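Usage

Read records sequentially. Each one opens with the input sequence:
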Amino acid sequence: MHALPGENISVIPQDAYYKDLSALSPQEKLSYNFDDPAAIDFDLLVEHVSALRRGQTIEQPIYDFLSCRRLEESVSVVQQPVLILEGILVLTHAPLRALLDLKLFMHLAADQRLVQIVERDIAERGRNTGEVLRRYLQTVRPMHERYVEPSREYADLIIPHGGHNAVATSLISEFVRRKLHAKLPT
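and closes with the structure output:
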């Protein structure tokens, strides 16, 4: 959403809320299913979104995918008029959905999703191509079919082409601008 104004907006990534796996063995970490909604600490995520909506500052966790744990450091996120919560599992959790004013589902073709996953997991998570493809076949694709794809029914707007859609971007930008105008002092 590069068309949105950067100021007055907080962005919360779902990926910061993965459960800490430091107690698991290296083998257990390798086989852990990060694509199941059970991998997300939704209680904390709901608590944080609720706090931001009340005007409070939160300490957003920092998740390290190489060690599969939350770091001791955190990121302070202050309440802004617009909060963007991003992540593929966000719409799977009813209490979280209830806090959202506009729910978007970014649709991307399966081959494009695979390319993005391969690129990200190699560059950011230290995995090799074989590991990424094994994980894709064993967990990513099945969990997408079981949880992510069905969650699109909760979306207010389904955006084809993974966000590379000028009309959808324009509609979302206008919605956000109206929200900002309504919330900011004149």
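Summary fields computed downstream for this record:
- Strands lie at 9-13, 58-64, 69-77, 82-86, 104-106, 157-159.
- The helical segments are 26-31, 42-53, 94-97, 110-125, 129-151, 166-183.
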